[in-house]
Amino acid sequence: MSCLFYHTKRSLRLCASAGVNNTLVHNATLRLCASAGVLVLVLFSSFLFGCSRKDAPVYDDYIYAPVTNAFRQIELVENASLGTNRVTLVDLDVRGMSAADFKRKLESVEGAAVHVWMPGRTRWLIVSRPVTNAVSMSAAMEAIASDEECPSLASIFSNYVGTREEIMPAFASRLEGEVVPEWFVTKDIPTVQWLDGRDVDADIRDLTLSEIRSMQLVRREVLEGDMLAAAAKTKGDEEKATDKWNKAALRNPHDTLLNERLDRLARNAKGFLKVGKVLQAMKCYETMVLVKPTAASVHNFGMCLKKIGKSDLAEKVLKHAKELEK
Fold first, then answer.
1. Other C-beta atoms within 10 Å of 165: how many?
2. At what angle do helices 256-274 and 278-291 cross, to 10 degrees?
């Protein structure tokens, strides 16, 4: 079978220098993926496409720690400038929740202002504010300064969906089925008018607001990738989804929704390996490598190749894993 290289220009540029004999893999396609200046060899095969790449939680009660961290960081931002007044948090597990139930829940929350955040796919946060006054950007920055796990104020706002008034129109014509993050893809990017930057230098304010919008656009890329993956029927469809996620990972490697998906893939891959389903595990690692390659994911992908007897290709992949460790 001839070696096919998919549509990315970087793959076409790299194919000639790969030095990989395509007879190593029967009925398979080799794709070369460049990330962070490191060449990673990735196996695409018709058989692998038929294998499950489930990313539903392995354990229903498993809580992804960065999502919990995001809850804490959101609370810090929302409480900034409030003094003795404090916000009320509604930690919402939306698994299996109908759109109608979510709408009723949102309408039932009391408060002068209500904000909706989406740090995880099924763990959302409704924040009820006792007053309508704006949050000082300076106070918000100061509040999160001591949190070592918070990259920036802008990164927190990647999880922001909007005020209750802004998102209610999403339920105007669709109250059937479960509520899912993708429902809000078509909603306008929230303006975050309640974040007041008049107390910081104009250049810092403008840069922060620009970064916030950028992070929200990245989240939209993540959700669009989720939609493509859910509807995927061919390898090409799957590649469009991974390309969306990869683009998002390059722009915001800290996006909790994207990283939660990668974490589910890693845990499911381990579960597959425990029961001897190497190809299914390899499919999980393959996706991780395409989206956000790390030394661990590339190494695990290489080890799966080794387990199925593709020693030569595995050696090349494992070599690149070591390069990523440097």
1. 9
2. 160
Tokens 């200046």 belong to which residue? Answer: 37
**Alpha-carbon distance 72 to 147, whole Å?**
9
Calculate the alpha carbon distances from 216 to 67, 116, 199, 228 in Å. 16, 14, 23, 19
Kindly tell me the burial class for residue 15, based on how many C-beta atoms sit within 10 Å of its own C-beta (0-12, 13-18, 19 or more): middle
Q: Which token pair is 246?
A: 């990869």
- pLDDT, one tens digit per residue, over 11-67 is 322 222 233 333 323 233 344 344 433 344 444 443 454 455 555 444 445 678 999
Three-class secondary structure assignment of the chain: CCCCCCCCHHHHHHHHHHCCCHHHCCCEEEEEEEECCEEEEEEEEHHHHHCCCCCCCCCCCCCCHHHHHHHHHHHHHHHCCCCCCCCEEEEEECCCCEHHHHHHHHHHCCCCEEEEECCCCCEEEEEEECCCCCEEHHHHHHHHCCCCCCCCHHHHHHHEEEEHHHHHHHHCCCCCCECCHHHHCCCCCCCCCCEECCCCCHHHHHHHHHHHHHHHHHHHHHHHHHHHHHCCCCHHHHHHHHHHHHHHHHHCCCCHHHHHHHHHHHHHHHHHHHCCCHHHHHHHHHHHHHHCCCHHHHHHHHHHHHHCCCHHHHHHHHHHHHHHHC
Q: Enter the pTM of the model.
A: 0.81
* Residues 280, 52 contacting (CB under 8 angstroms): yes
Q: What angle do CA 226, 10, 23 make, to 5 degrees?
A: 95
